[in-house]
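Translate structure to sequence.
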C-alpha cells in the first residue's frame, strides 16, 4: 500500500493550519523492531521515508490494538479532525496552550455538560507526568463522539484503501444528526 496513506493526506487537507498534528502511521512491518534506530532504518528501506519519533512513541499502543481479537471493530480517528467536525472548522489554537485547552473544553461541553467536572477530576487523579491535559481532552473527544447519539460517524476517505490484512485504512469523521 502507499505511504503515507491517502487518509492522512485527506485529514491534513481538512485541518488546514492544524495539519501538522497528523503524522504518518508507520508501516506494520516495523512494529517488531526493538529500537528506534532499527525501526527507522527498516522504515526507510520499506517506504523511502524515515520514521517520525512521534510514531515510535505510539508503538506500544499500536501493538496493543494489533493484539486484540476484535481488531476489525476498532476504528481509527484523529482528535483534531473530530474537533474540527464539532466546531465546523479547524480550531485556531494549539491543544498545548491554555487557549487551546479552553477551546476544546468548550466544544466538549456542548457534547457532555459534565465534561468540566470529569476533566477536573481526571487532572487531579493523574499528574501531568503520567497524563498530559491535552491527552485527556483528546481521549474525551474520541470517546464522546464514538458513542454520542446525535453524531454519526463516517469515513473521511470515501474510497479508502485496505491493508494487506483486509482492514479499512480510514479515519472517522462525525456529522451532527439531530
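Result:
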Amino acid at each position: 500500500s502507499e505511504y503515507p496513506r491517502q487518509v492522512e493526506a485527506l485529514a491534513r487537507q481538512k485541518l488546514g493550519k492544524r495539519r501538522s498534528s497528523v503524522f504518518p502511521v508507520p508501516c506494520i512491518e516495523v512494529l517488531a523492531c526493538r529500537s528506534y534506530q532499527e525501526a527507522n532504518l527498516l522504515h526507510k528501506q520499506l517506504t523511502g521515508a524515515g520514521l517520525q519519533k512521534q510514531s515510535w512513541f505510539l508503538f506500544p499502543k499500536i501493538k496493543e490494538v494489533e493484539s486484540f481479537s476484535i481488531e476489525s471493530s476498532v476504528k481509527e480517528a484523529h482528535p483534531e479532525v473530530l474537533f474540527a467536525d464539532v466546531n465546523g472548522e479547524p480550531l485556531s489554537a494549539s491543544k498545548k496552550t491554555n487557549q487551546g485547552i479552553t477551546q476544546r473544553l468548550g466544544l466538549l461541553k456542548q457534547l457532555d455538560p459534565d465534561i468540566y467536572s470529569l476533566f477536573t477530576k481526571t487532572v487531579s487523579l493523574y499528574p501531568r507526568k503520567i497524563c498530559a491535559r491535552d491527552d485527556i481532552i483528546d481521549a474525551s473527544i474520541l470517546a464522546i463522539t464514538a458513542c454520542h447519539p446525535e453524531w454519526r460517524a463516517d469515513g473521511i476517505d470515501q474510497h479508502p484503501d485496505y491493508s494487506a490484512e483486509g482492514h479499512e485504512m480510514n479515519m472517522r469523521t462525525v456529522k451532527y444528526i439531530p
